[in-house]
Amino acid sequence: MLKISTVSLEEINNTVHIPDPNASFLRKLWAFSGPGALVAVGYMDPGNWITSIQGGALYSYLLLSVILISSLIAMLLQAMCVKIGVVTGMDLAQATKSMVGRKVAFCLWISTELAIIATEISEVIGSAVALNLLFDIPLLIGVLLTVFDVVILLILMRFGFRKIEAIVFCLIATIFIIFTYEVLRASPALGDIINGFIPRTDIFTASIKGHDSALVIALGIVGATVMPHNLYLHSSIVQTRKYDRKNRTSLKDAIKYATIDSNIQLSFSFIINCLLLILGAALFYGNNPDDLGRFTQLYDALKDPNMVGPVASSIMATLFAVALLASGQNATITGTLTGQIVMEGFINLSIPLWARRMISRGLAVTPVILCIYIWGDKENIVENLLIYTQVFLSIALPISMVPLILVTSNKKIMKEFVNSKLTIILGWIATIALVVLNLQLIYEVIASLY
């Protein structure tokens, strides 16, 4: 059995009460619900929005099947994260360090920290653009304002982890309600939506001259599905519940209910990503895709009857910006927690939360500020950074996925909770497929630059 000297996220580990073993299914599920919401945030960050909407605008409902398959892979991998946390008492960073040693762990920490910063850059850009759309705040000022969300997070931490989970879920619900409303207003073709969930060979062959092919957009959707930081985050925060760490039945229940929570929350992110693509197909399919490549263009299009027809209104556009802001703020919480997890897990270094928050946010806003300073206060400049952050996340992905499969498939470590043969096969297929697709995405992005 692997050994660790400290528990993951010590200040919140084993702090959330759960009902006694004889409680009802719903009471137990409610007690374990919450960590899945923080994980689901990573599957609907601002970096995914334009890809999904453009996928619908260019190829109608064709790529819905890609979102479905990607979400199923995500559920499989996050279920493994639950097992690592519950069974071993470690997070993924601690488990990885125990296998590779101190020197390699330090290198892995550097790459993972860069991946977290890349994720936060996406959140900074999304929040700054949303503030610009809603309140006409210049992008530079919006970027600087995101630094001060550290105060909000520190206040939330004082009220307990359960409150943070509730706030994140409310933000997810806000995004869900907004896009459900907008899709209903758009009146999409139900039959075409259903057919879109059936995988078709057109995904590999469909193309429009002068624009990304269906395959390239599909690669973007798949490549952005599993974020490296989510795997570290989930393996840690699942341990916030007060289950009996030495009781087999208690561990079994913890895995069961935490996995159900994860699948429910990831289903929300799956629906939201589908809604984004459906919105793009219902409102923008057949229009000029060059008019829909930026957040501001999408915002303006939702107000333009010539683009989206009679459903166009300032309310539709404002709700879109509100959802973008909610999506950006969600990543604030998860980015901070994950940064602490990997720092303590890989190099056993613990610093005050406020310092961790200021350092990570400072590193995230610096490249955005430099872009604005050098090339001007232009949205297209900062949004180009989104492309590069997604590419870096693709590079960092195998570092987290491979140890995840290895640990949960090791019977000496997991004992009776080891992955089944089917799970191991599916896990490696998903891992290899995602790595190959991410490499292809990196190639496509680099090729487009030249």
Automatic annotation (TrEMBL):
One of its GO terms (cellular component) is plasma membrane. It holds the Pfam family Nramp. It comes from the Bacteria. Keywords: Cell membrane, Ion transport, Membrane, Symport, Transmembrane, Transmembrane helix, Transport. GO terms for molecular function: cadmium ion transmembrane transporter activity; manganese ion transmembrane transporter activity; metal ion binding; symporter activity. The chain crosses the membrane at residues 58-86, 137-157, 164-181, 214-233, 266-287, 307-326, 358-375, 387-410, 422-443. It is a multi-pass membrane protein. It is found in: Cell membrane; Membrane. InterPro entries: NRAMP_fam. GO terms for biological process: iron ion transmembrane transport. H(+)-stimulated, divalent metal cation uptake system. HAMAP family: NRAMP. Belongs to the NRAMP family. PANTHER family: NATURAL RESISTANCE-ASSOCIATED MACROPHAGE PROTEIN 2 (PTHR11706:SF33), SOLUTE CARRIER PROTEIN FAMILY 11 MEMBER (PTHR11706). This is Divalent metal cation transporter MntH.
